[in-house]
Design brief:
The complex is a heterodimer. Chain A is mostly helical. Chain A is built from six helices and no strands. The longest helix of chain A is centred in the middle third of the chain and has 25 residues. Chain A starts with a helix and ends with a helix. Chain B folds into four domains: 159 residues, no CATH class; 187 residues, Four Helix Bundle (Hemerythrin (Met), subunit A), CATH 1.20.120; 126 residues; 163 residues, no CATH class. Chain B has a five-stranded antiparallel beta sheet. Chain B has a four-stranded antiparallel beta sheet with strand order 1-9-8-7, covered by helices on one side. In chain B, helix 5 crosses helix 7 and helix 9 runs antiparallel to helix 10. The chains are: A mainly alpha, B alpha+beta.
Chain lengths: 133, 729
Amino acid sequence: MEFVAVLAIVALVALVVIAPLRRGRVEQVEQRESSEVAELEAEKDSRYAEIRDAEMDFRTGKLSEADYRQLDRTLRGEAVAILRQLDRAGAGEPPEEAAQRRAEEYAEERAPEPQADERPPEHAEERSQQRSA
Amino acid sequence: MATFGRALLIVAFALTLYGIGASLYGAIAHRRAWVDSGRRAVYSLAGVLTVAFVVLEAAFLRNDFSFSVVATHSSTTTPTGYKMAAAWSSQEGSLLLWVWLLSLWSSLVLYLTRRRVREIAPYATAVLLGFGAFFLMLVIFFASPFKTLANPPLQGTGLDALLLHPAMMIHPPMLYSGYTLCAVPFAFAIGALITRQVNVEWVQITRRFALGAWLFLGIGIILGARWSYTELGWGGYWGWDAVENASLLPWLTMTAYIHSIMIQEKRGMLKVWNATLVLATGTLAILGTFLVRSGILDSIHAFGASTLGVPFLILIGVMIVGSIGLVVGRRGILRSEHSLDSFFSREAIFIVQNIVLVGMAFVVFWGTFFPLISEAVTGTKTSVGPPWFDRYTVPLALVLVVLTGVGPLIAWRRATLANLRRNFVVPLLVALVALVALLAIGAGDQPKALLMFVAAAFVIGCVGQELFRGTRARQTMSKEAAPVALVSLVRRNRRRYGGYIAHVGFAVLLLAVAASSSFQHAKDISLTPGQSTRIDGYTVRYTQATAAATAQKISLGARVDISKAGKHVTTLRTTRNFYPSQDTSLGIVGRFFNGDSDSVVGLRAGVGRDLWTVINPDLKPLQPIINQGDATFRTAMTTLVRNGGSSASVNKLYQLRDTAIAGITQRFITHPWAADFRILVSPLASWIWIGAIIIALGGLIAIWPMPHGAARRVRAGYAARVARDLARS
């Protein structure tokens, strides 16, 4: 009985472990996201977190307005640079994702502006820029 | 079932070897299918080890004394809950628990990262499976939990009496979860260094696991402290014991790491430092396991034997040499991308905090290993005691508490003097008020404790101000009511405010440690029923002796009434439990009184102070009666056996023995004699546990994932895209 149980477990484990070697699909699917894109995504997340932190620091009085404006400008500039690199790195985007993305862009650009915005007042000029875009 | 268990361990070991090979081949040959297969080996390992652990637990639950580990760590009278916990009270079971938990956490991290860090993950998989292979080798070749006995006994030895405590049921799994979680960032750091992908991605991916390790280690440490306070009968919660220190070391370095990675994430700085810290933490986690299991240092809870020393030392040696080699070899790509903008910045505070934490870890390491160092140098094993540790750790802890307040008040990158002034006024006022109040109530004669109180008040002022200002800012933006705004604020900035809450908990905990150690009143006294003593204004009266004899244990105890200014405050009950030994040389009656024993403390925990007492009854007055019983029953048993007495006669003899034991036990009430008591009045001791709960709550908030709103891709003007991404999250 014990022998049969061990045999069953070994067979099950072998099935689970060897399955990817019997399929060619995995490699094709997984190669879509390059490590460069992943690294840039991580950089982007970091920069976003830093922009949010700077805003919290400003709102809680740890940064003067002038310092905050300068820091925010720098960080957003860095974030824009990362987004540009991301777009360049994502050139090999599959056609169905590209089509989906273009549809999203279209909808996003024509979506009505939110009534209330949580950003500090000094971003008013950016909002108007966003509208004109 | 033991054969089944052994076979499962061999299958598991084969899986680790296969997984290592498949992952490395997949990584080197760029064959994703092999990498995927290697990752699946980890999932399968978790499945196989889960079955193996269930087999072991089942053996404990059904009292299968053919398993050596069950016979030596459990008995038919062990309560069910403790039978389950007995599995990890043994060396063999705890090693299996270690590798099982490792397989579970490894599966989780590899599942979550299956589409990320593609280059790093296979190497991390190989490292994690390497740890698995090492521990499986130990449980297969050195300490098998599935070893069987040729002649199983009818009764087991039972669980060590000291481990019969609720905290001990969850303390080891918590600690081992912490240790095994430390292996996750360690493995990914190794992968990142090998593949030269040392930027921010691997740090972000493993951050929650690092926080999880920190959280579990912290919970494990505090449960150990609670066990010490309520079980060991000396009234302390931390004795700088080698095994306690072994769990504190990775906690300290992990605390440093979870702060310093923020600098790497934000500024691309401290890459060498972070890699070193996380590699050191992983190594210290293995060292911690080694200390508990090797028995090389004397400890109240080093349960192991020295047979595992050599394999562990080899593993630790490989980890140290490999880590140093990798960090030195990759120093070129580990260079910082930026430099420190200002010494008045949060980065600078974090660096100072890191130095203090690592300094503290070094002190703890030196003190813990001093017996081995002194033996190597002088040939004599010399230990350093708690005063040595206190001399260095107390000032460092003070600086650390102050920094937990200063950090949140200073902005990233730079802070101006005007901002510093604005932010520090309120917390400094809070600290000043606390100082004046404490001096007024006469706390000035304990300067270290006084400083700790003031520092803690400063931290509470800092975090309180942060929460107040954040809530106000949130209210301005969202027009929410204050409580809703506070919740929203914390929910939207979990990492920041979770951290702040943990800082408050840390300050509260250290404040309570300072109060309960500096202003504690302790008395050791011998009392007979009816006698009383005074301590810190309380009258403590030993009103009644208590005694009970069951098949599991003999309990001798006391009822103690505590009053103040003639007013009854509370009644405490304390007992000393004596567990029957399986050692027949102690005598047929004597083995019931001279086996393992533990204490049940009488405790009234309060917001202001704990009233704590423990009894240590002297058994000497009973010894002549016990000896007489041993002689009488030995003679009776020998006579019965010689004359071929029936089993009914033997059973009758055992019944008589049980009646005699009950009678001897009752003498503690009918002929009471003096018993030793330790009585403590510890101010604010309960706040140690409250502080720990606050830290854990902060850790949970920080670890909780944010909604994944920002993940969607949006193409528009780049500046607008940044703004929209930020508005989503």
